[in-house]
Amino acid sequence: MRKHLLQLGWQVYRDQGLWSLIHHAIGEIGYRRVLLLERSLAAPIPVVQSKASMTIEWLTDSDSTDYFAFRPKTDRELYADRLRQGHRCLLARVEGRLAGVMWVRSGSVWSYQSKYLHYERQFAPNEAYLYDAYTDPAFRGQAIAPALSSELLNRLRNEGCERAIRGTHPMNAAALRAHGKAGFRPFVAIHQVHFWRWHHVWQRAR
To answer: How far apart are CA 13 and CA 11, in angstroms?
Structure first.
Protein backbone atom coordinates (compact mmCIF):
# COMPACT_ATOMS: atom_id res chain seq x y z
CA MET A 1 0.00 0.00 0.00
CA ARG A 2 2.75 2.45 0.96
CA LYS A 3 4.68 1.61 -2.23
CA HIS A 4 1.54 2.26 -4.29
CA LEU A 5 1.03 5.67 -2.65
CA LEU A 6 4.65 6.61 -3.27
CA GLN A 7 4.35 5.62 -6.93
CA LEU A 8 1.11 7.59 -7.28
CA GLY A 9 2.71 10.61 -5.59
CA TRP A 10 5.71 10.49 -7.91
CA GLN A 11 3.44 10.26 -10.96
CA VAL A 12 1.42 13.30 -9.88
CA TYR A 13 4.60 15.27 -9.13
CA ARG A 14 6.14 14.31 -12.49
CA ASP A 15 3.05 15.06 -14.58
CA GLN A 16 1.47 17.99 -12.70
CA GLY A 17 4.08 19.54 -10.41
CA LEU A 18 4.66 20.13 -6.71
CA TRP A 19 1.54 22.19 -5.99
CA SER A 20 -0.69 19.54 -7.54
CA LEU A 21 1.02 16.88 -5.41
CA ILE A 22 0.36 18.96 -2.28
CA HIS A 23 -3.33 19.36 -3.18
CA HIS A 24 -3.67 15.65 -3.92
CA ALA A 25 -2.19 14.94 -0.48
CA ILE A 26 -4.71 17.32 1.09
CA GLY A 27 -7.42 15.52 -0.87
CA GLU A 28 -6.44 12.24 0.71
CA ILE A 29 -6.90 13.88 4.12
CA GLY A 30 -10.39 15.15 3.34
CA TYR A 31 -10.53 18.30 1.17
CA ARG A 32 -11.06 17.86 -2.56
CA ARG A 33 -11.78 20.09 -5.53
CA VAL A 34 -12.81 19.60 -9.13
CA LEU A 35 -13.09 22.26 -11.79
CA LEU A 36 -15.80 21.75 -14.41
CA LEU A 37 -15.16 23.21 -17.85
CA GLU A 38 -17.60 23.76 -20.70
CA ARG A 39 -17.64 24.67 -24.37
CA SER A 40 -20.45 25.36 -26.78
CA LEU A 41 -20.48 23.07 -29.79
CA ALA A 42 -21.99 25.91 -31.81
CA ALA A 43 -18.57 27.59 -31.67
CA PRO A 44 -15.89 26.54 -34.20
CA ILE A 45 -14.06 23.38 -33.22
CA PRO A 46 -10.29 23.55 -33.84
CA VAL A 47 -9.00 21.07 -36.38
CA VAL A 48 -6.11 19.19 -34.79
CA GLN A 49 -3.84 16.86 -36.73
CA SER A 50 -1.83 14.30 -34.83
CA LYS A 51 1.86 13.96 -35.66
CA ALA A 52 1.23 10.23 -35.98
CA SER A 53 -0.93 8.68 -38.68
CA MET A 54 -3.88 7.32 -36.74
CA THR A 55 -7.37 5.96 -37.17
CA ILE A 56 -10.26 6.90 -34.86
CA GLU A 57 -13.25 4.68 -34.15
CA TRP A 58 -15.85 3.92 -31.51
CA LEU A 59 -15.10 1.07 -29.11
CA THR A 60 -16.99 -2.15 -29.92
CA ASP A 61 -17.22 -5.55 -28.23
CA SER A 62 -14.34 -6.81 -30.37
CA ASP A 63 -12.05 -4.11 -28.93
CA SER A 64 -12.37 -5.26 -25.30
CA THR A 65 -9.28 -7.47 -25.32
CA ASP A 66 -7.14 -4.67 -26.74
CA TYR A 67 -8.61 -2.18 -24.27
CA PHE A 68 -7.83 -4.35 -21.24
CA ALA A 69 -4.28 -4.88 -22.50
CA PHE A 70 -3.96 -1.12 -23.07
CA ARG A 71 -5.29 -0.32 -19.57
CA PRO A 72 -4.60 -3.44 -17.49
CA LYS A 73 -5.82 -1.86 -14.23
CA THR A 74 -9.31 -1.37 -15.64
CA ASP A 75 -12.14 -2.40 -13.33
CA ARG A 76 -13.97 -4.79 -15.66
CA GLU A 77 -17.24 -4.52 -13.77
CA LEU A 78 -17.13 -0.72 -14.06
CA TYR A 79 -16.23 -1.06 -17.76
CA ALA A 80 -19.30 -3.27 -18.34
CA ASP A 81 -21.50 -0.89 -16.33
CA ARG A 82 -20.44 2.04 -18.47
CA LEU A 83 -21.44 0.25 -21.65
CA ARG A 84 -24.76 -0.91 -20.18
CA GLN A 85 -25.55 2.70 -19.22
CA GLY A 86 -24.87 3.95 -22.75
CA HIS A 87 -21.41 5.43 -22.24
CA ARG A 88 -19.17 5.33 -25.31
CA CYS A 89 -15.43 5.35 -25.82
CA LEU A 90 -13.57 6.78 -28.80
CA LEU A 91 -10.33 4.97 -29.67
CA ALA A 92 -7.23 6.23 -31.47
CA ARG A 93 -4.98 3.62 -33.10
CA VAL A 94 -1.55 4.05 -34.63
CA GLU A 95 -0.65 1.19 -36.98
CA GLY A 96 -3.33 -0.89 -35.29
CA ARG A 97 -2.01 -0.26 -31.79
CA LEU A 98 -4.16 1.59 -29.26
CA ALA A 99 -2.61 4.99 -28.58
CA GLY A 100 -5.39 6.92 -26.83
CA VAL A 101 -8.95 6.64 -25.52
CA MET A 102 -11.64 9.06 -24.39
CA TRP A 103 -15.00 8.26 -22.77
CA VAL A 104 -18.23 10.22 -23.16
CA ARG A 105 -21.76 10.09 -21.72
CA SER A 106 -24.55 11.82 -23.61
CA GLY A 107 -27.93 11.50 -25.24
CA SER A 108 -30.50 11.54 -22.41
CA VAL A 109 -31.37 13.15 -19.08
CA TRP A 110 -28.99 11.56 -16.59
CA SER A 111 -26.98 12.18 -13.46
CA TYR A 112 -23.32 11.49 -12.83
CA GLN A 113 -21.93 10.50 -9.43
CA SER A 114 -18.25 11.36 -9.11
CA LYS A 115 -16.02 8.84 -7.37
CA TYR A 116 -13.55 11.55 -6.44
CA LEU A 117 -16.29 13.67 -4.86
CA HIS A 118 -19.56 12.70 -3.18
CA TYR A 119 -21.33 14.87 -5.69
CA GLU A 120 -24.07 14.31 -8.23
CA ARG A 121 -24.86 16.57 -11.17
CA GLN A 122 -27.83 16.47 -13.50
CA PHE A 123 -27.21 16.67 -17.25
CA ALA A 124 -29.59 17.53 -20.08
CA PRO A 125 -30.20 15.62 -23.36
CA ASN A 126 -28.19 18.17 -25.34
CA GLU A 127 -25.10 17.93 -23.10
CA ALA A 128 -22.17 15.50 -23.12
CA TYR A 129 -19.66 14.76 -20.41
CA LEU A 130 -16.12 13.83 -21.53
CA TYR A 131 -13.99 11.86 -19.08
CA ASP A 132 -11.31 9.23 -18.48
CA ALA A 133 -9.07 10.29 -21.36
CA TYR A 134 -5.77 8.44 -21.51
CA THR A 135 -2.81 8.44 -23.91
CA ASP A 136 -0.12 5.78 -24.03
CA PRO A 137 3.09 7.43 -22.68
CA ALA A 138 4.92 6.09 -25.75
CA PHE A 139 2.76 8.36 -27.95
CA ARG A 140 2.69 11.49 -25.80
CA GLY A 141 3.89 14.64 -27.51
CA GLN A 142 2.28 13.62 -30.80
CA ALA A 143 -1.04 15.45 -30.26
CA ILE A 144 -2.98 12.21 -29.91
CA ALA A 145 -5.32 13.52 -27.17
CA PRO A 146 -6.08 16.91 -28.83
CA ALA A 147 -6.83 15.20 -32.15
CA LEU A 148 -9.05 12.65 -30.42
CA SER A 149 -10.87 15.40 -28.53
CA SER A 150 -11.42 17.41 -31.72
CA GLU A 151 -12.86 14.38 -33.49
CA LEU A 152 -15.13 13.54 -30.56
CA LEU A 153 -16.49 17.10 -30.35
CA ASN A 154 -17.26 17.08 -34.07
CA ARG A 155 -19.06 13.74 -33.79
CA LEU A 156 -21.10 14.97 -30.86
CA ARG A 157 -22.10 18.14 -32.70
CA ASN A 158 -23.18 16.08 -35.72
CA GLU A 159 -25.40 14.07 -33.37
CA GLY A 160 -27.13 17.24 -32.18
CA CYS A 161 -25.22 17.81 -28.95
CA GLU A 162 -24.92 21.49 -28.04
CA ARG A 163 -22.63 21.60 -25.00
CA ALA A 164 -19.62 19.58 -23.88
CA ILE A 165 -18.44 19.39 -20.26
CA ARG A 166 -15.35 17.90 -18.68
CA GLY A 167 -13.67 18.01 -15.29
CA THR A 168 -10.10 18.37 -14.09
CA HIS A 169 -8.15 19.16 -10.97
CA PRO A 170 -7.68 22.95 -10.58
CA MET A 171 -3.91 22.51 -10.13
CA ASN A 172 -3.43 20.44 -13.29
CA ALA A 173 -2.01 23.29 -15.36
CA ALA A 174 -1.10 21.09 -18.33
CA ALA A 175 -4.65 19.75 -18.63
CA LEU A 176 -6.14 23.24 -18.27
CA ARG A 177 -3.91 24.54 -21.08
CA ALA A 178 -4.83 21.63 -23.33
CA HIS A 179 -8.55 21.99 -22.63
CA GLY A 180 -8.31 25.73 -23.17
CA LYS A 181 -6.86 25.18 -26.64
CA ALA A 182 -9.90 23.01 -27.39
CA GLY A 183 -12.22 25.87 -26.38
CA PHE A 184 -13.14 24.72 -22.86
CA ARG A 185 -13.56 27.35 -20.16
CA PRO A 186 -14.13 26.88 -16.38
CA PHE A 187 -17.69 27.54 -15.26
CA VAL A 188 -17.97 26.02 -11.79
CA ALA A 189 -15.63 24.79 -9.04
CA ILE A 190 -16.83 21.93 -6.83
CA HIS A 191 -15.43 21.73 -3.28
CA GLN A 192 -15.80 18.96 -0.72
CA VAL A 193 -14.74 18.52 2.89
CA HIS A 194 -15.02 14.91 4.01
CA PHE A 195 -14.38 13.54 7.46
CA TRP A 196 -15.39 10.06 8.59
CA ARG A 197 -19.12 9.74 7.71
CA TRP A 198 -19.69 13.48 7.38
CA HIS A 199 -19.14 15.44 4.22
CA HIS A 200 -20.11 18.83 2.90
CA VAL A 201 -20.11 19.84 -0.78
CA TRP A 202 -20.50 23.30 -2.24
CA GLN A 203 -19.89 24.93 -5.59
CA ARG A 204 -18.81 28.32 -6.83
CA ALA A 205 -19.39 29.76 -10.26
CA ARG A 206 -16.26 30.65 -12.19
So the answer is: 5
